[in-house]
Design a protein that fits this description.
By secondary structure, the protein is of the alpha/beta class. Strand 4 and strand 5 form a beta hairpin. It is elongated and about 70 Å long.
């Protein structure tokens, strides 16, 4: 009978670990150093360095500081952000964080962890409002409509978890949120007219905050580059840090982490924003839909 492996989960690649590893790899290549030089600085093997750069193992703060020193990274703020990322990755591997109180977020733990350290999020939605803008009634109606909860009472922890994700958006250190919505998102009667009126009013209220931007791509815009495909792009504070792209499927989330994918989706988002109405005209459209309801 196989026993329990105490290291299980520690030698798996995580989004956070891969992003941290890619930053260290970028710094090493910038200095034209090989893995052997990095290994010598750590008194370790080149295999360990390779695992670190691939995000396969949690990273110790002393190792990160040693590599930053080797690579000539003297900006303490930049080093500090890498240490924060490493800490978040270690917590992620131990499933610790504010999200740990919400078991229904476990499948989204990488997303909410990255949301918690992101500085900018760009989101394109074609079917539902992003979680950051949802009211409890809207989130509850989505959960009921999904059929994923045979016991309706178990929906409430999901709703609480969804609302907890919004805390940083309007907190003391908020990130920048730029949402582009297809008009169909606003007209889908999730939960009925009363729920949608309240939900659309909250979208308008949230969009008044200086760190939130909401645009609508109207039906009249016609065909667009991402018919039926929604995605979010998360950006971070470090100079040269890689953006990551998140997409939902029916069963799980998909991460696109390469330079080419990030650049491609950034260009797509830019085109969609150009097709969208201005913030003022988008608000006018939303107000018009509220009046119709």
């Amino acid at each position: 009978m196989a026993g329990t492996n105490p290291d299980r989960g520690k030698t798996v690649s995580t989004v956070l670990g891969r992003r941290l590893g890619s930053e260290l790899l970028r710094m090493r290549l910038r200095c034209n150093l090989g893995q052997a030089a990095a290994a010598k600085a750590l008194t370790a093997s080149a295999t360990k360095v390779a695992k670190m750069e691939r995000g396969l193992v949690p990273m110790r703060d002393p190792d990160i500081r040693a590599l930053c020193h080797l690579y000539g990274e003297g900006d303490e703020d930049a080093v500090g952000r890498l240490l924060e990322l490493a800490e978040a990755d270690r917590d992620r591997r131990k499933a610790k964080g504010w999200w740990d109180h919400y078991t229904d977020l476990r499948s989204l733990v990488e997303l909410v962890t990255l949301e918690d350290i992101a500085t900018h999020i760009r989101s394109w939605e074609v079917a539902v409002l992003p979680g950051m803008l949802q009211t409890p009634d809207y989130a509850r109606a989505l959960a009921m409509g999904s059929g994923a909860w045979p016991d309706p009472e178990k929906i409430e922890p999901f709703v609480e978890a969804r609302m907890a994700r919004k805390a940083r958006l309007l907190g003391e250190q908020p990130f920048e949120l730029w949402v582009v919505l297809h008009e169909g998102v606003l007209r889908q009667l999730v939960g009925g007219r009363t729920v949608m009126k309240k939900q659309l009013r909250q979208v308008l209220d949230t969009a008044r905050h200086p760190n939130v931007k909401v645009q609508v791509v109207p039906y009249s815009a016609g065909a667009h580059p991402t018919m039926g495909i929604a995605f979010s792009i998360l950006s971070f504070a470090e100079a040269g840090a890689l953006d990551v792209v998140h997409m939902d499927t029916a069963s799980s989330g998909v991460w696109l982490e390469g330079d080419a994918d990030a650049e491609h989706h950034g260009q797509l988002f830019g085109r969609l924003a150009q097709m969208g109405l201005s913030e003022h005209d988008s608000a006018a459209l939303i107000n018009g839909i509220i009046e119709e309801l």
